[in-house]
Fold each of these.
Amino acid sequence: MNDLLFETIEIAGKAIKNKQISPVELTQMTLKQIREHEPRVNAFITVMEEEALAEAKQLEAELVNNQVRGPLHGIPIAVKDIFQTKGVKTTGGSKIFDGWIPNEDAKAVQKLREAGAIIIGKANLHEFAMGATTENPHYGSSKNPWNTKRIPGGSSGGSAVATATGMAFGAVGSDTAGSIRLPAAMCGTVGFKPTYGVVSRRGCLPFSWSLDHAGPMTRTVRDAAIMLEVMKGHDQKDPASVKRHVPVLSDSLSDLKGVKLGFYEPYMFAGIDSDVKRVIEEAFRQLESLGAEIVPIDLPGIEEALNALKAIAQSEVVSVHEPLLKKYGHLYGDDLKYRFEFGSDISATAYIRAQRRRDQFVRETIKQMQGIDALVGPTNVQPPFEIGTMVPSMAISNMFTLGKTPLANILGFPALSVACGFTSENLPVGLQLIGKPFTDQRVLQIGDCYEKSVQWVKALKDNVNYV
Amino acid sequence: MTLEEYLRTILDDEEVELATLEPAYTFNLEDYEEAGQ
């Protein structure tokens, strides 16, 4: 029965609807898994045992009356502790917010509950989501389930770890430069950053308004689509929220015939570890064997655009934290202090220039992607390094040296990371697909077809490195 | 409590209003004509 903890949301959901297992039983099993494995991986800041069981009982009662809230009815889901949860403390991974108990849920959390999700706990993260390692000086480091001496990636590291170890069926993450996709790749799971504005960030402590995204983290691509279908939608209280209908769920593709993927080698393979490269090249061959065509593409202005991202993120984050820094600067970790020092030096004109660069790059990239379904490349270009080896000056560069994720944030385009194999040291590697704006469904379809042909997801259940 | 109420417990009042406002500029891909094509 414990195998059910590693099943998909779709299968667990059917088991609940068919009354093969009750929401209370599934929640109890998940809590038992957390009790057994959490001490070794530190995925959570708060485990919501009491609240989750109460919710499970309510959902069970509804089921007895044949009421099904939605596709997540009775499914335990983790939430990165940067999203508000009603009645449960929301720390943002910081001691400054250790005393905050919000009076309402973040919009994405609210939508998940309306679809029947049981919030099982608040997942650990890099302090204020500002880093790629999830080495949190206040709540401890989350550990990679494939090698607990290594980082799980970040900033949504706890969310990825919880999903990889059967302590949740999925999680909510946030992504400003790769914080959903990088930990998903490093833990052997799936992370999806939707098109900018598709999922409301209301109730998510901001990092950088014009780069922040919220999205699902799961074990399979299909599960990411199921969660996104629930989480998406216009929210007038998020100024970035888009009004258009964005399709997500669709039938699975049987092959990738007619799919064209653009590959920009000078960026995607720059700084890549040779072992990771071997895994990615194998994934490319698999995509081609499914019928996809991988063609070279140019991305003019990419270097300037990535520098623009750094300027935008650093300016906006300093602006967010300025009032807190004056009084509580001593409560920030050393790497964040380094970030704020860097961000404070960016002038207003440099910030505006960076936003103009971004606009120019988005227009140019849309042109370059005519006739292309998605860009393809690695998510992480390095395997996860050992916990405790990061120095503060690596805080900003980490996201750029560990992965190829920031590109999709400066563009705002939808981006998926799907597990594509392991290095010789048995550390996971993620394949990344970046689609055109609002083609979230197409990206998920391609990723789903690839994933089903390789089935790396099965390795999660057999992984015993954290036991 | 709301974020604003929490911030009032740890910051001076005049700081709080600014701290909780999102600036007008965000980024909207709906503005790009070719988007989604």
Amino acid sequence: MNTFLRSLSTTQQIGALFLVVFGVLSLVTLWSFVRSLREAPDGDADAAAARKAKARRLRALLQTSWAMATVFWVGWVLGDTAATVLFALVAFFALREFITLSPTRRGDHRSLVLAFFVVLPLQFVLVGTRHFDLFTVFIPVYVFLALPVVSALANDPQRFLERSAKLQWGIMVCVYGMSHVPALLLLDFPGQEAGRGAFLVFYLVLAVQTCMVVQHLLGRRFPHKPVAPAVSQSFQWASWLAGVGVGGLVGGLLSFITPFKPGQALGMALLACVAGSLGHLVMKALKRDRGITSWGMQGQSVTGAGGLLDRVDALCFAAPVFFHSVRWYFGL
Amino acid sequence: MLAKLMGFFLLGLVRVLTGSQARWYGCPPKAEQRIYFANHQSHADLVMIWAALPEELRSITRPIAARDYWTKSPFRQWITTAVFNAIYVERQAAPAAAAATTDASPAPAQAPAAPAIAPSPEALRAALPEGDPLAPLVRALESGDSIIIFPEGTRGHGDDPQPFKSGLFRLAQMFPQVVLVPAWINNVQRVIPKGEVVPVPILCSVTFGAPIQLEPGEERRPFLDRARLAVMALREV
């Protein structure tokens, strides 16, 4: 079995991987559908309502997973450029959500225009053309200076630090973080054939998402005292450690599709999971500051935000850490 | 054909830039004759509310467009007539209309000295002078269209909408069977503030509230204040 898998070309291996992912998703969807058909036993109204809520959450999780898997699959099928463009669109919509819920003033208009229509495309062009050194410093060094200059020239000093910081945060999380996912895709390892970056993306996404899901489920099943209840009602050290551990384990098990040895893969996955889950906590703090619980508000908010940022924020934090660690460790 | 293509393109552009979500809070999107009245913050308001309506309603609803702004260039004129099917209104005619109403009001005040029978809607419509800025809106309503108006009259720049002008009251008097639906357009002033050209992608939504009715015997100013409060209440929803 192993020799057969190794004998396939990279493209065929990735195709097989997607088959496995879609297969698992289909099985889980089928199981949840069958379960929903089963007649509920006569219980009190509370139990029935709780069951309904659980079913709804599972359905939302499945929908998100299907959407993500499909997006990644479409990106892979259409090639590197299309994948980069796809992630640029995701970053665009995520930044749109972030900026909507961060009050900006009239003086920020030019900076916002620059952020959406110059910085974002430029960053993804740099990714697409594999200028990895420039792409790593473009936003933290050049854009960090340039956008506040434009805001300053707009002649509005009220809450200047707050507005510039919000804009910079939005760009760092949504544009900079998201752009590292296609960068992973385009990373070429010496001694390995091209196209193996897709496996690294899969490895990263699976490890981080597993960590988030396990942390969430264990946190509900075995609730402990939350560490920072004002920020997050559900973040506890116990479930966090368990989530990171399981995510690391999943990464370690997947070492055969990456250029890492199993120990290296475990370490890398642990690092990515820590970065992703703690980044999610930071985004929770940001949301609480704005007085909301999720960017999307279940589609009922007056802003019309859809909650895209809720889904991808862990990835936006994990990807740069992972990308940089990989490049540094392997000296690329 | 070209207008349809442009319509699709604009719809797509508005959706990508602003999401343009419609929230039918107080009434369903029914194809009955309605007057939608909303707050006015930027020239993009009419595009926003047009894009938020579902397709069946879009074809029967005509937004109001200021003639002096939207006929400045042939492109703008074409867009408002062919794509949005807008009704042009003169903004500058307001002083003339004010003069006409002040001329007209002393006469009816003297005539029904005894029981003050309110003039019937048909009589009001017939009594409308030709140059009145409401005339194009009245003609559109008479032919069965739904319209979108901005009762503030001009774009507001504060947080709250300005006091409503009397156009809504007079239209409600002339067409008592038309449903009056308040709407709140959220966030549009951040997309293109005054004086800017390039829009910033920010999520906007249009919230449609429960219809209001002109009570028999209700005066102009209380009705307009009630309408303004109805629009402002949708901001919190």
